[in-house]
Write a structure and sequence with these properties.
Layout: H1 2-25, H2 30-57, H3 62-80, H4 86-114
Helix pairs in contact: 1-3, 1-4, 2-4, 3-4
Length: 126
């Protein structure tokens, strides 16, 4: 599970560290990169109720949530490899956001379920 989370996180961080530079190298203004993250936040807020239904009815286990999210992340990066104009970056961000909606809520839930009884929410030093 940790390896799966690490893979998702490493891929996700590429958006934070490299995509803005790549977009600027394509002469796409930084404003549009910021717009992508604004859209990301709006979609997350708007889609939460829909995702609750999807998870309850179709993607019912935490493992399935992580796998579904990872596959969607991969799809976003596949689209991203073809991005040379803003609209393709926009499509990739929309796909990435749906991956986020599956992966990131599952992570703290898994940590909570794996914590010893009475220690939920705490990290104990080894």
């Amino acid at each position: 599970m940790s390896v799966g989370f690490l893979i998702c996180w490493v891929a996700y961080v590429q958006w934070l560290s490299n995509i803005s530079v790549h977009m600027q190298s394509l002469n796409i203004d930084l404003y549009y990169y910021s717009l992508l993250w604004t859209l990301n936040g709006l979609l997350i807020v708007i889609m939460q109720p829909v995702m609750a239904i999807v998870v309850r009815k179709w993607v019912t286990t935490l493992k399935a949530q992580l796998i579904t999210g990872a596959i969607i992340f991969a799809g976003a990066f596949l689209v991203l490899t073809q991005a040379e104009v803003f609209t393709v970056f926009l499509l990739a961000m929309i796909i990435l956001t749906f991956g986020e909606l599956f992966v990131w809520p599952a992570v703290p839930t898994i940590a909570n379920k794996m914590a010893p009884k009475g220690s939920e929410g705490f990290i104990k030093e080894l």
